[in-house]
Amino acid sequence: MISESLVEDENKVPDGGWGWVIVFGATMTHFLLVGIARCLGVIYLCLRERYQSSAANTAWVASAFNTSRTLTAPLASMLCERFGCRVVAYVGGLIFSVGLMISAFSTSLLFMLFSFGLLSGFGGVLVFTPAYIIVGEYFDKRKGTAMGLATIGSGLGSLIFVPEFAVEKGFSHSEAALLLSVYGFTDLTIRFLCAFLFDLRGVRKERRYPFALVGIMFGISTIVISLMPDYGTLAIAMTFNALFESAFDSQRATVISEFVTRKQMSMAVGMMIASQGIGNITGPPLAGTNISSNPTINYSGNYDN
């Protein structure tokens, strides 16, 4: 009887308490890591101007960062199972910080590719993956709320070429950056609302269906962005894209948890994040090559979360 009680206590999910501190830590992780990823469109412009590089070559820096931050997530999951989320996050934070610091002394695009793209990207995945896993360990009935609040710090869904797309349309750099601010504000608001909406009694049991619909609308709205002819319509399109992206991203780990056991959740999160890496490693470079060979082409988006 005593041993059974101990097992029940170990498997019991707090659903609050110290778990809210964990959620806050995960929120700050998204704020820092995904916040940087969301600025890649602006960083991309700065790198092109500083190194006078082509669109295709410059795009590899952003591609390397997002790829190493996502494609290596299964490795991060295995490390979490072996050493624990806390240790992996500590080491990842150190690697990420070192990569950013040495990037400040970069003298070439190749150096940036290594320091920022690969080193900081790999450090990022070692922090980003545990942030998803550990929240699920502390919540069950309130998992939708916890996951939504944990991702609220990111306010992203970066579109790598949106700033230059706006500049090429005749808008200023400040107007281009403002687009990202509009996107971020919408993203932040919707994530907060979805954190509670998807945990409502009437929604919780069937949340996989609205989640699937939101995912479809997210894909459609991403395609529509490249068709916008002026600043006003582009801002509106990005607002709707942010609406669907934020709802999708804030609940994807929650929905996945309904199909796997708690022991399988770590690897499931790793595979979830890694699936983004396929698009990250191919999308920006291919789009950059098309832009370099055809200056009139519409720009490709890149999904980060």
Q: How does this structure look, described?
A:
Keywords: Membrane, Transmembrane, Transmembrane helix. One of its GO terms (molecular function) is monocarboxylic acid transmembrane transporter activity. This is Major facilitator superfamily (MFS) profile domain-containing protein. The chain crosses the membrane at residues 20-47, 87-105, 111-135, 147-166, 178-198, 210-228. By secondary structure, the protein is mostly helical. The protein has one domain: MFS general substrate transporter like domains (Growth Hormone, Chain: A, Up-down Bundle). 77% of the residues lie in helices and 0% in strands. The chain has 14 helices and no strands. It has helices spanning 2-11, 19-38, 40-51, 55-68, 73-83, 85-103, 109-138, 143-150, 162-168, 173-197, 201-204, 208-225, 231-256, 262-293. The longest helix is centred in the last third of the chain and has 32 residues, at 262-293. The model is unreliable at 1-10, 156-161 and 297-303 (pLDDT under 50).
Q: Quick summary of this structure?
A:
77% of the residues lie in helices and 0% in strands. The protein has 305 residues and is mainly alpha-helical. Residues 109-305 form the Major facilitator superfamily (MFS) profile domain.
Output the keywords.
single chain, 305 residues, mainly alpha, Growth Hormone, Chain: A, 0% strand, disordered N terminus, disordered C terminus
What Rg, in angstroms, do the CA atoms define?
Answer: 20 Å
Structural class given helices, strands, pairing? mainly alpha
Which class in CATH terms? Mainly Alpha
Low-pLDDT runs of 5+ residues are 1-10, 156-161, 297-303
What is the number of helical segments per DSSP (H or I, 4+ residues)?
Answer: 14
CATH topology: Growth Hormone, Chain: A
Task: Give average pLDDT, whole number.
Answer: 80
What count of structural domains? 1
- Provide the succession of SSEs: HHHHHHHHHHHHHH
The description of the largest β-sheet is: none
Give the N-terminus to C-terminus distance in angstroms: 45 Å
Please give the CATH architecture: Up-down Bundle
Keywords: Membrane, Transmembrane, Transmembrane helix
Domain Major facilitator superfamily (MFS) profile: 109-305
Pfam families: MFS_1
Transmembrane segments: 20-47, 87-105, 111-135, 147-166, 178-198, 210-228
